[in-house]
Amino acid sequence: MKTVDVDHRSRVLNGLLRQAQEENLVLRAPDGREFVLAEIDDFCREIELTRENKKLMAFLDRRGRETQE
Q1: Residues with Cβ < 8 Å from 20, sequence gap 6 or more?
Q2: Among the ranges given (18-22, 42-46, 52-56), the one the predictor scored with the smallest mean pLDDT
C-alpha cells in the first residue's frame, strides 16, 4: 500500500477527508470504477506495518512450525 500526502490547499480532497471522518465513502470515477475512502485507526496501521516486516513475519512463521515437547 502506498501513502499519498494531500496538500492542505486541495479543497475538494480535504472536504472528502472530513466527510470520511464521519462515515466511510464510496468514490465513483467517471468510468464507473469505485473506490473506498475510510479513516484508518492507529491499530490498523500498526498491523499493516507489522505485516510488511519480512524479518518478523519469517520469525513468526518459523515459530509457528515449531512443535511443543
Answers
A1: 37, 38, 39
A2: 42-46
